[in-house]
UniProtKB/TrEMBL annotation:
Transmembrane segments: none
Coiled-coil blocks: none
Superkingdom assignment: Eukaryota
GO molecular function: chorismate synthase activity; FMN binding; riboflavin reductase (NADPH) activity
One matching Pfam family: Chorismate_synt
Any GO BP annotation: amino acid biosynthetic process
Protein name listed in UniProt: Chorismate synthase
Cofactor comment text: Reduced FMN (FMNH(2)).
Gene3D superfamilies: Chorismate synthase AroC
Record family assignment: Belongs to the chorismate synthase family.
Length: 377
């Protein structure tokens, strides 16, 4: 399906080499100030051609709002946004798409499912589809910021074997989660890793694989601060379940780890439990530690939400690969086209956008519950 959300909903459209990509966002509250300038920064952070660490495809990814806004105010009606594909090259795929299903790509499975597929690039499986998500996420994020000063910051914590410390029990890592900003992340250059001691090695790791006409994967970690308590819908739409759903819908994502994650299984409950205390300054209960990752029982508890998402190595590479054609004959595939040697740094605004979409939807659902409770009491 191409629609995500219940009250705050986004439907994306477009393929990698069609005329445009974009989205329709429904459920945006009326009266909110919104312009294209609110949306463009995240699209610019996601766009290709930013550096030698990304695909050379050169797209401006300039957003054009088509509806739902008048005099810079949201009308409460669907907001349509269009981003034109200006540097598409479908002919790059003429020699391979009708012969070979690209290894570990979606060519074979899309063909099996629909009986037809886009003849160039990845079609709907291409990361170009995520442009609509990022545009919609920018609106969701502005709403969250306005209502509750919510901050969402993603950053690279691993490329290949090169990683920064992200031990959830390490106070230094918790300090990073408490203080990291997008300005800090972007100041580290195209690698977007806040740890200067490993950022340079991460760049070299990507350059090594790019030089070998290969690719490499990595991990994006994301933190959410200032989120209200009470968000999440047990049992099946728990907040971490919806975040996992959102993250695993991103192309090339391969997992989801929240809070203490896999490291928590080796820690006894007596040490893993997050003890409560009363915060006199904030006038509310808080936890001394945050091994839960800001969510307990599927509901936000007011602490930072933090999670990590691994992204696999890009499937389309220029190396010759022995594989099989659609009709089962052995052959050698050397893919053409322009592709990232590592998608991880450019995945950050996509992770942030999907996070914002989940949280905006959850906040509207909770606000409706709170209002309905108020009118019956």
């Amino acid at each position: 399906m191409s629609t995500f959300g219940k009250l705050f909903k986004v439907t994306t459209y477009g393929e990698s080499h069609c005329k445009s990509v974009g989205c329709i966002v429904d459920g945006v509250p009326p009266g909110m100030t919104l312009t294209e300038a609110d949306i463009q920064p995240q699209l610019t952070r996601r766009r290709p051609g930013q550096s030698k660490l990304s695909t050379p495809r050169n797209e401006k990814d300039k957003v054009e709002i088509q509806s739902g806004i008048e005099f810079n105010k949201t009308l409460g009606t669907p907001i349509a946004m269009l981003i034109r594909n200006e540097d598409q090259r479908p002919n790059d795929y003429n020699d391979i798409m009708n012969k070979f299903p690209r290894p570990s790509h979606a060519d074979f499975t899309y063909s099996e499912k629909y009986g037809i597929q886009a003849s160039s690039g990845g079609g709907r499986a291409s990361a170009r589809e995520t442009i609509g998500r990022v545009a919609a996420g920018a609106i969701a994020e502005k709403f969250l910021k306005q209502v509750s000063n919510v901050e969402i910051v993603g950053f690279v914590t691993q490329i290949g074997e090169i990683k920064m410390e992200r031990n959830p029990f390490d106070p230094n890592f918790q300090h990073v989660l408490n203080t990291i900003t997008r300005e800090k992340v972007d100041s580290m250059g195209p690698i977007r890793c806040p740890d200067a001691s490993v950022a340079g090695d991460m760049v070299k790791e990507i350059e090594k694989y790019r030089g070998n006409q290969d690719s490499i994967g990595g991990v994006v970690t994301c933190v959410v601060r200032n989120l209200p308590t009470g968000l999440g819908e047990p049992c099946f739409d728990k907040l971490e379940a919806m975040l996992a759903h959102a993250m695993l819908s991103i192309p090339a994502s391969k997992g989801f780890e929240i809070g203490s994650g896999f490291a928590g299984v080796s820690v006894p409950g007596s040490k893993h439990n997050d003890m409560f205390y009363y915060d006199e300054e904030q006038k509310r209960l808080r936890t001394k530690t945050n091994n839960s990752g800001g969510i307990q029982g599927g509901i936000s508890n007011g602490e930072n939400i933090y999670f990590s998402v691994p992204f696999k190595s890009v499937a389309t590479i220029s190396q010759e690969q022995k594989t099989a054609t659609y009709d089962g004959k052995e052959g050698v595939l050397a893919a053409k086209g322009r592709h990232d040697p590592a998608v991880t740094p450019r995945a950050i605004p996509i992770v942030e956008a999907m996070t914002a979409l989940v949280l905006a939807d959850a906040l509207l659902i909770q606000k409706s519950r709170e209002y309905s409770r108020s009118i019956v009491n």
